[in-house]
Amino acid sequence: MVNSKYTGENNIVTPTAADDLDGEVVYNLGNISWMLISTVLVFIMIPGLGFFYAGLLRRKNALTMICMSMAIMAVVSVEWFFWGYSLSFSEGADSFIGDLKHFGLINVDMDVSPGGDTVPALVYCVYQMMFSCITLVIACGAFADRARFGPMLVFAFCWATIVYNPIACWTWNVGHGWSNNLGGLDYAGGTPVHISSGTAALVISLYLGKRRGYGTEKLAYRPHNVTYVVLGTVMLWFGWFGFNGGSGLGANLRAAQAMMVTHIAASMGGLTWMILDYRLERKWSAVGFCSGVISGLVAITPASGYVGTPSALVFGVVGGAACNFATQLKNLLGYDDALDIFAAHAVGGFVGNFLTGLFADGRVSSFDGSDPSDGSGWINHHYIQLGYQLADSCAGFGWSFVLTFILLFVIDHIPGFKFRCSEKEEILGTDIAQIGEEAYVIPHFSHIEAHNGNMHSDEPSKHELQTGSYAPSDSFPSDTNGELKGNTAVDNAVA
After folding, report:
1. What does DSSP assign to residue 231?
2. 3-class secondary-structure state, position 259
3. Which of 60, 158, 454, 478 reaches 20 to 30 Å from 76, CA-CA?
């Protein structure tokens, strides 16, 4: 039983079993409050990412992405409860992965957190759980338009255990993880969150193959709802203040600095991407601006607690430009990354880790009382730091790439767990085929049906669903060969 007491200075005093403390530890309620607020901010990023993804897809797959974000959060939260937290942050961890000491969150309460003595382990646990959840949501976006829902959830549970937990351990388990002991600087998840998820998205895209009709003129893959994209970006931008600002585990000046550089990098990233797109079509793209904001946020993530505000401008410009040009990799290499996750997150994570090695400033690290030498890069003449950053980045990329492929292969060959939708399901759309519901209930081509004198109910019959002959609200009239046709303007509007 935890025997804690509250003091008049808004602190909690509790006994502790930590060997390096004098029998008790004091937690400030302000720090705890800030961490709980940050947890909620990261939570709101998850449905925000769902809306961001949904807006970029065709209408017939929009609801699947929103539902996926919430379902994966639930699955990964259960994994975190059973053994995810223990494998990532147990005190008995080796340099690579933890043990099962905290299986089922046993004894995860008032003891000192693995991240530091500013908050209890339980507060740190729930905060880090949100990180695990959003990492999987980012990665599973690569299943868009072409994957079955059930196997995707199985993949999320297994990937969190096999890929995410070890990387989180070696990055953030203080005194245990090899990258942490080496001296790698990753404030909020450049490698565990972004490089790992972006790399997984690349492997998923390669493994599943291209979407039906991708790369042909028969189907136009255009965002169906740019308003969703903007809404999702706003939710992500808002939540990122907790994502980066809470990673220092305290309500202090360093948290404020992390929030400042987060905002500046996002702003510069959005402007950079929008300007780069303007040079092509002489249009100020809303999708381009939103994509740039995400790129800037990703790039600044590992550096947010280590760099000064002027450096954030560089992170935004370089991150936005690098991710913008990286979107062309899918054309050069011939894979179909439906949401450009590899370009935004893996490339953005590499850029962020690299720039952290250059611009990490010990002065910023000292804002919360830390030793300035613990956060120094080239700007402080600590030149070896760049090597540490590259080692961590490459290790995260390699681990995620190999293990993701193996996991996909194994699950895909289990009877009943094949990832790829059938061709009929892909034509119908994953909303109807996998969920049985639609994001929008709109009469499909009612004006066309009326013109042809063939008015009937928009609800598909059982026979239509089974044969794949039903054309949902965002599909096109079919010819006798089942190929979609229509003018380009209509295709882009309703596909």
Report:
1. H
2. helix
3. 60
| Cβ-count burial 387-419 (b if 16+ within 10 Å, e if not) | ebbebbbebbbebbbebbeebbeebeeeeeeeb
**Domains observed in the chain:** 5-412 (1.10.3430.10), 441-494 (no CATH)
Tell me which residue has tokens 């066309």. 448
Q: Return d(Cα 460, Cα 391) in angstroms, integer.
A: 54
> Quick one: how far is CA 339 from the chain centroid?
12
SS (H, E, C) 385-437: HHHHHHHHHHHHHHHHHHHHHHHHHHHHCCCCCCCECCHHHHHHCHHHHHHCC
Alpha carbons 231 and 352: distance in angstroms, whole number: 25
The SS3 of residue 108 is coil
Read out DSSP for 294-323? HHHHHHHGGGTTT--HHHHHHHHHHHHHHH
- The H-or-E segment that residue 113 falls in is strand 112-113
pTM confidence score:
0.87
CB neighbour list of residue 331: distance below 8 Å, 6 or more residues apart: none
Of the chain, the end-to-end C-alpha distance in Å amounts to 59
Q: Which residues share a beta bridge with 12?
A: 6, 27
* Distance from C-alpha of 478 to C-alpha of 210, rounded to nearest angstrom: 21
Residues 6+ apart with CB under 8 A from 343: 198, 323, 326, 327, 329, 330, 337
Q: What share of the chain is helix, strand, coil (3-state, %, to 5)?
A: 65, 5, 30
**Distances from the Cα of 43 to the Cα of 37, 39, 135, angstroms:** 10, 6, 12
Give start and end residues of each alpha helix (H) in 224-252. 226-245
Tell me which residue has tokens 């991407």.
273
- C-alpha dihedral over 394, 400, 403, 407, to 10 degrees? -160
Question: Shortest CA distance to 114 belongs to which of 45, 198, 172?
Answer: 172
| Full pLDDT tens readout for the chain, 495 residues | 455 555 656 677 776 544 444 567 888 899 999 999 999 999 999 999 999 999 999 999 999 999 999 999 999 999 999 999 999 999 999 999 999 999 999 999 888 888 888 899 999 999 999 999 999 999 999 999 999 999 999 999 999 999 999 999 999 999 899 999 999 999 999 999 999 999 999 999 999 999 887 776 666 678 999 999 999 999 999 999 999 999 999 999 999 999 999 999 999 999 999 999 998 888 999 999 999 999 999 999 999 999 999 999 999 999 999 999 999 999 899 899 989 999 999 999 999 999 999 999 999 999 988 888 888 999 999 999 999 999 999 999 999 999 999 999 999 999 999 999 998 999 899 999 989 888 887 665 434 433 444 433 334 444 444 444 444 444 333 333 333 333 333 333 334
